[in-house]
Amino acid sequence: MEHMTDIAFAGSALNGAVPSAAALRVLEALETQGLEAWLVGGWVRDALMGVACHDIDVCCSGSWEQSAAALRERDIDVVESGTKFGGITAVVDGERIEVTAYRLDGFYSDGRHPEQVVRASCVEEDLARRDFTVNAMAWHPQRGLLDLYDGRGDIERRVIRAVGEPRRRFEEDALRMLRAVRFACRLDFVIEEQTAKALATCAPLLDQVARERVGIELNGMLLTRHGGDALLRYPELMCAAIPELAASRGFDQRTQYHAFDVYDHVARVLTVAGELSSSRIDGGDPTSPVSASLMWAALLHDIAKPDCFTVDENGRGHFYGHPERGAKVARDIMRRFSCNNDLIRDACLLIRFHDEPMRPTRERLLYMMGNIAGEGVDTHRLMDELFDLKRADTLGKAPSCFYYVEDIEHMRAMTHELFESGEAYSIKTLALTGGDLIAAGMTPGPQIGAALKRALEATMRGEVANEREDLLAYAISSSC
Ligand code: ATP
Ligand code: MG
User: Fold this and answer.
1) 1: pLDDT confidence band, cut at 50, 70 and 90?
2) pLDDT digits (tens, 9 = 90+) for 107-126
3) Angle of helix 175-187 relative to helix 193-202, nearest 10 degrees?
4) What is the distance in A from the centroid of ligand 2 to the CA of 40?
């Protein structure tokens, strides 16, 4: 190993994927000092799948101190990022590569971090603690692929399978259950039968996991655009993650507008919203990232339906007030998961207005735009998401409702025109300010706000153009 250089590793590839020069330098630096090092986890999986560009993780036989010394010996910068758990980060030409000592334990998601890391003696032991076969492979440019659990076969079969006995692995770390579903959604794999069975039986163990970690996994799952599949295939786990969802399972809506129970409806809406988000019908960039607010709103839009259910004298079901109530419940759920505040605000606005009757008139649409406005809100984006949600909601109902999609798209187009023509729908978008009114001689005080509000309503009704002079004249005359 003493004579190993970059050249020794150059040209080696796994399924056509070549690790970055930075990663090869790290491997080489470690091995020159007599340590053993491998690329592990996501990079190996993605390389075998033909997916490029993954962060590179390295595992190494040395302690973190030994790895750090070996890297520094070769002038590689080291950040002592996770030394408590045997990890450091090598920084080469701006690229960050995690280097972790072989270890037996790890991945504690319930807040019970071990005081000390238990080192493993060989890479095989390190791989055995990893979660799924597709994530438990190691590769080295010279020693090749180390695949003890047929991860490669599982990639070919498109299967997520626990390493070892699934129940035991989920008992060790319940977060793995959500990881299984997230990977299945992301890679479009199915979860192998025994692993899937264990998901259902071990689902209650999820209570041990910090809510924030659950939230991160759910968010990751939603962003794959396949959250609808997760709901349909792994309902026990999803209801353990979000207990408020459980009441909607099998909940008969008792209306001709719905062909599905609440839970199946939500799954469909999530699927369609994911589709809409990825192939924007308004000509947007199909590669643009999926919107988290739309996905969370789709997941939680009917969360309060079971609580708001009433049956009328004809035996028909109604859910009066479910959007308002749903927005409140969704806020609680998302706060519990420590979602960021802007995301919570946006998702809850969508939920609050998802069922609001809308008509294709200028005034009604401006009012809706006003509803979807507020401090920090990107009203244009969120109106589009509201139309996406309404369209997805419609397509999750009964076929007799599908005609409404055309109306939705008509209203979307009208809304775009309203934005483009600079119409006012909020005090902020009004072409008149309090300062203008004071400059025109109005005394500061609450009357300023009242005058602006009157001017806004007048322009939304179409009585005055959203032009400063016109609005000023209107405000002054209406204040006399
Ligand atoms: P990506 O980062 O693209 O989501 P990844 O495979 O790199 O995928 P990470 O969460 O970054 O996933 O974890 C890196 C590796 O660490 C995984 O491939 C897996 O081998 C292991 N791992 C991570 N979390 C756990 C866990 N909770 N239990 C067991 N192994 C885990
Ligand atoms: Mg990773």
Assistant:
1) very low
2) 666 655 565 678 899 999 99
3) 140
4) 10
Per-residue pLDDT tens over the stretch 332-385: 999 999 999 999 999 999 999 999 999 999 999 999 999 999 999 999 999 999
Local structure of residue 104 (DSSP, 8 states): S
Per-residue pLDDT tens for 209-256? Answer: 999 999 999 999 999 999 999 999 999 999 999 999 999 999 888 888
Q: Whose CA is nearest to atom 1 of ligand 1?
A: 42
Ligand in closest contact with the CA of 160: 1
Could you tell me which of 150, 145, 103 has the C-alpha nearest to residue 127?
103
Structure confidence by residue, pLDDT tens digits, 39-82: 999 999 999 999 876 789 999 999 999 999 999 999 999 999 88
Give the tokens for residue 400: 């007799």
What does the mean pLDDT of the chain come to? 92
- Strand (E) or helix (H) holding 184: helix 175-187
Extract the tokens encoding 478.
């209406």
- Bridge partners of 100? 59, 87
Question: Maximum CA pair distance of the chain?
Answer: 92
The structure tokens 């984006």 sit at 381
d(CA 251, CA 15): 48
Any alpha helices (H) in 279-399, and if so which ranges? 292-300, 322-336, 341-353, 362-371, 379-395
- Ramachandran angles phi, psi of 229, nearest 5°: -65, -40
Angle at 351 between CA 348 and CA 352, to 5 degrees: 85
Rounded Cα distance, 117 and 119, in Å = 6
Which atom of ligand 1 is found nearest the CA of 136?
A: 20
Tokens 């339906």 sit on residue: 305
Pocket test for ligand 1, best of 45, 96, 135, 175 (most atoms within 8 A of CB): 135
Sequential DSSP letters for 113-154:
--SS--B-SSHHHHHHTSSBGGGS-EEETTTEEE-TT-HHHH
pLDDT of residue 3: 42
Residue in this structure with the two tokens 């999530």, named with its chain if needed: 270
Residue 304: is it exposed, middle or buried by C-beta count within 10 angstroms (0-12/13-18/19+)?
Answer: buried
Cα separation of 282 and 303, whole Å? Answer: 29
195 near 154, Cβ under 8 Å?
Answer: no
How far does Cα 205 stand from its chain's mean position? 23
Q: Are strands 95-101 and 57-60 parallel, antiparallel or unpaired?
A: parallel
Place of tokens 């129940």: 167
Residue at 166: amino acid letter: P
DSSP state of 462: T
